[in-house]
Amino acid sequence: MSIFGKVYDRKQTRSVKWDMLQEVFQSNDVLPMWVADMDFKAPEEVNQALIERAKHGIYGYTTIDNDVSSSIVNWLQRRHDWKIDPSWLSYSPGVVNSLHMAVQAFTEPGDKVLIQTPVYTPFYNIIKELDREMVKNPLIYKDQYYTIDFDDLEKKLASGVKAFIFCSPHNPVGRVWNKDELQKIADLCLQYNVMIFSDEIHADLIFPEEKHIPIATLSEEISKNTITCMAPSKTFNLAGLDASYVITSDKVNRQKLDKAFHRQGFHNMLNTMGNTALEAAYQHGEAWLDELVQVLEQHAHYVREMFESHAPELKVVRSEGTYLLWVDCSALELNKQELKKFMVEQARVGLNAGQDYGTEGEAFMRINIACPKTTLEEGIKRIISAVQAR
Ligand SMILES: Cc1ncc(COP(=O)(O)O)c(C=O)c1O
User: Fold this and answer.
1) pLDDT tens sequence across 26-63
2) Ligand 1: which atom is nearest the Cα of residue 322?
3) Chosen domain end from 241, 267, 284
C-alpha cells in the first residue's frame, strides 16, 4: 500500500482538524475534511531528522545556517526555475504573519488593499485588523472554472490601491495562474504603482500537467515590486512547526519588511524543529512530493466522477492544484446556513463553508482531499447519501 493510503488516528494529538470538531461543528459525529493540513505522515527523512534532533535533547536558541538557506535556494531553483540570492530571504513563523507584516510595512491605515474573491479568509482579516480599506476584484465563475476580470482589476488598481494580496495558486478555487495572467497582473501593478504580496504557499501542490510560475520570476522590475511568501508547511504537512520564509529581491523593500518584523519582536529566526524539518524536507522530500501530487490528482478525479454519477447537484470546480476542492452546491437550493447545516447534520462531514471565503462563496463548500482514499471514500459516500435522501 502506498504511504498515502495508510490511515492514522489523529485524535487526541491536539489536531485542530480532528480535536476541535465540537467547537467548530457543534458535533463530534462528523468526518473532518476541512482545515488545510493533510492526514499523511511527513516524509520519513523529515521524521528521522526531527527524531535525531530531539535525541540531542537541548532546544536552545537556534540559528539559520547556510545549509538551511541553501536548501531553500536549491528547492526554488529545481522546482520553480527561480534563482534567488540567499540574502533575499527573511524568515517567519507563518505566511499569514508575513502578509500581516508586509501590509504594515508598505501601507498605512486607510490605504486600499486589493484581494480577488472568493479567497482564503485571513486575507479579509488582515485588511480589517490593520484598518486598511478592502477593495475586491471578484473572480469570474463560468462553466465550473475561475478566471480574472481584468477590466475590473484595472479599474480597481487605478483607483489608488496601494497593495494587492495575491493568492497564487489560489485557495479555494484551485487555479494555478498561467503566464499570460501573471504577466497582465504584474504589468498592471507596475503601471499603477501597486505592490504585490504574493502568497505562494500552495506552489508545490500542482497537478503534473500544470506549472506554477512565481510572479517575481517574470522580470527584475516585477521582482522588485513583489514580496513572495512561501513555506514547506502545506507541501510536506509541517504546519504545526511554524516555519516559513519571505523572498524580497529589492534591498530597500527587504529592509523595510525586516524592520516591520523587528518592531513586532520577530527576529528572523525559525524554531529548532521548524529549521530541521524545513532543511530535511527540501533536501530529501522530492520523491515523496511527486507521489503525493499524483495521489491528490487521482483523489480530485475520483470526487468529480462520484458526484457526476451519483449526486450531479454537486459540481466540482475544475482545479489545477492544491488539495482543496471547491464544490458548487447551488443546485441544492439551500441558503448559506442551510447548506452548512446540511453537511454537518445530514452528511456528517466537516467541510469549510464557502461563505467564509466571501459572499461569492455562499453556495459552495470546500473539501480537503488530502487524506487516505478510504477516508475520502467514506466522506464522499456520506455526502452522496445525504444528497440522494433529500
Ligand atoms: C493561501 C494560504 N495562505 C496561508 C496559509 C496559512 O499559512 P501559515 O500557516 O504559514 O500562516 C494557508 C493555509 O491554508 C493558505 O491556504
Assistant:
1) 999 999 999 999 999 999 999 999 999 999 999 999 99
2) 16
3) 284
How far is the centre of ligand 1, averaged over its atoms, from the C-alpha of 88 (Å)?
Answer: 21
> Relative to the CA of 324, which ligand 1 atom is closest?
16
CA of 386 to the centre of ligand 1 (A): 31
Where residue 359 sits, what CATH number does that domain have?
3.90.1150.10
Same domain, 280 and 292: no
Which SS3 state, helix, strand or coil, does residue 225 take?
Answer: coil
Ligand 1 atom 16: residue of nearest CA: 171
**pLDDT band with cut points at 50, 70 and 90 for residue 106:** very high
| Residue 270 and residue 382 in one domain | no
Does residue 169 register a pLDDT over 90?
yes
Residues 101 and 27 in one domain: no
SS3 at position 366: strand
Is 296 within 8 Å of 205 (Cβ atoms)?
Answer: yes
| Bridge pairing between strands 161-167 and 349-350 | unpaired
Residue whose CA is at the smallest distance from ligand 1 atom 9: 94
Residues 6+ apart with CB under 8 A from 354: 118, 172, 326, 329, 336, 339, 361, 362, 363, 364, 365, 366
266 φψ region: left (φ > 0), alpha (ψ -120 to 50), beta (else): beta
Cα(31) to centroid(ligand 1), Å:
22
Average of per-residue pLDDT values in the chain: 97
pLDDT confidence of residue 68: 97
Q: Which residue has the cell 455562499?
A: 362
Mean pLDDT across 147-166: 98
pTM beyond cutoff 0.90: yes
